[in-house]
Each structure stands twice: as C-alpha cells, then as structure tokens.
Amino acid sequence: MNKKISITKLKPGMYVADLGSDWMSHPFLRSAFKVKDEATVQKLIDSGMKEVYIDPARGDDVVDAPTAKEVIGQLEGAMMELAAASAPPARISATEEMGRAKKIHGEANRIIRGIMQDVRLGKQVTIEQAEPVVEKITDSILRNGGALLSLTRVKNKDDYTFMHSVSVCALQVTFCRAMGLDAATTQLAGLGGLLHDIGKVRVPNEILNKPGKLTEEEFKVMKCHVVESKKILSETDGIGETSILVASQHHERHDGSGYPEGLKGEAISQMGQMAAICDVYDAITSDRVYHKGMAPHEALRKILEWSKFHFSPTLTQAFLRVIGIYPIGTLVMLESGRLAVVLDQSEGKMLQPVVKAFYDSRKRSYIVPQEVDLSRPLGFGGGDKIVGHEKADKWGVDLARFA
Ligand SMILES: [Fe+2]
Question: How close is the Cα of 169 to the center of ligand 1, in Å?
C-alpha cells in the first residue's frame, strides 16, 4: 500500500510510486522510480514537488505516514460534503439539450481549428470569429450545464489541442456562472478559455504531439506557449483584459511553482486561478496516447488534494460543487446491484441524479434499461441509491450505448 509523505522526508532508497502532481507540470520526470541519490530528491524539490507517494514494498518505508487508502477516504469524505450542495437549476433536461450541444461542440471545434490555422499562417485573430460560438456555449450551459460538459470528455487524439480549448471554454463559462459572475465577464472568460492555448501554434509539432515523455529541453519549449498566447492575444483588436488573463495565467500555481512568472496566491488573478483548475481538470480527464484519462470524480479528488499547494482551496471547493461528483456520463453502482450511467442532475440534488440502470452486476448480464430518478421514492420512478463509482473497463460494459 502506497504512503503519502512530505518531500522533506524523501530519502535515497525509497521508491516513488506517484509524484502527487499532474503529469503536465513535469512531463520530463518518470512517475515511478527508486530514489538513487540526494540529487534526485533535489531535482524533485526544484520542480516544485511538495508531497509524493512512496511504495514501501519496493523501497524504504516511513512508518507514521498515512496510507493512500487513508488519504483517499479523507478526501472522499470532504467531497461528499461539498457535493451535497444543491444542483444548479437547469431549464431543460440534458437529453433535450444534447442534440443542440453536439452541434455547438462541433462548431466550436471547427472555429478554434480555423483560428489556429490562420495564426500559423501569420494572420491575426479576429475575435468576431470566436465570439458567437462562445455565446452559444454559454446559452447551452444555461439551458442545461451537464449536456455540453459530458461531450467535452471525449477527445480525438489528433484534435486534442482544439478539443481541449473548447472544453476549457465550456468549463470556464460553467465556473463563472457558479461564481455568480456577470454575463459580460463570463463571455470574456469563455473567450479566454477558447483561445488560452493559441500560443501552441508556435510550438513545433514534434514536441506538441510527442507520444511520450518530453525531455527537459522540450518541456522548456512547450512552456513558451503561454508567453506566445499572451503575445498573440495582446495583439488582437478588441480583446478584453480578462480573456488575456485566462491565457497568460493558466499555468501559474497558487504556491508559486507554476509558470511563466511563478506568481503566488492572490498575485494570480481570480480568472487565472479559475483557468488553472479548468485546464488541469480537462487535461487529466482526457485520454492521451501515453496516458489514460481519469474518471471525473477521481480527477476532482486529485485536484482537491493538490489544492493544498497548487490551487486556491476556496475556488477548488466551488469548482467541485459545480461539477458535482456524479457528472453526466459517470458509471455508478446502485444499492440494488445494478450498474447505471448518470443521465442528468435532479433539481437541487447533486447526490441523487437521474440514472439509467442497464446491467445486473450480480448476474453479470445486461438488463432492460430503466431510467431511475434517485431523488424520488420507490413507486415514483426512484427507490434506489448510489453506493459508489465504478470503472467501465472492470465490467467490460459499453457506456456509450446507454449514456
Ligand atoms: Fe496550456
């Protein structure tokens, strides 16, 4: 069983099992290895690491350190409390919104692809190209926030940068809405989200799409995309400062370990701090060539854990409340032993969503799909409850057929 320790307790002879950080921040480091010397420990400290997980079965132990299971238990408890908040009101059901959300998602992907191609050819960004689709994204989220967000988790590897840009836009808009920010600020934040990685057009393709670990040199080049994004957007006519902040601060970290400026705490704007959370959440829930994406609740748990150092704890809690621990498309186990996929939030009840039960885990067989509103009692379309999250691979079920 892995244990979590402060980096100050890490010694040669221990086996690092998990760096306790998102892999995009340190793509040149191996995530599991035996610590050979003090220089390795120093390199981790220099990279901004504060805590790591060690595997005592493969190296030296730290006796009084908490186990991964204990850490997870504590975080899950905190998440349940936060997520017990009321669900944001939706004007229509996710099923009703889904058709429109798919069209808007496709359109947004085409637009950001076009803009990035133009910039690569030396043209300027014209915000008129992007503004209408950000409005459409906001409207879709106001009708039902879950529909469009459920689409953002699926990424096609060749289009990752475009799809990630659309996701960050949708997440940023959702986040702003939950924070009660006004419509004009939300629009600027969404536009910033859509354009936040535009500087990647200046990163060579072999680094941008490298199907594996980057070297330290390559990572230095990759990091430049933030400065390039800021430059490109600063030269864009009519762009608002809020949109530029999303792009220029999305890799800053609360403890000062981020880049490009290493800003700390409140020196990072609220918009920049929100963008950092949205950016990491989308990146770690996405499948990459060399990394399998995490399920949403696992990603939220990680972000909550990392918020001790990397993100604003208050904003992280607000983000967790709005995404909820059962986002649409999540696979859950019901008390009845049925596997179900989350279809929608029920009005006001984040922990009791509407689900579709489709598999009997005890008989290990598919059943006639049944929609269950977990906020309602038995006999009124409900009468079951979620006992935990499940992984689709473990059961060999095809979620896409039922979501
Ligand atoms: Fe980025």
Answer: 13
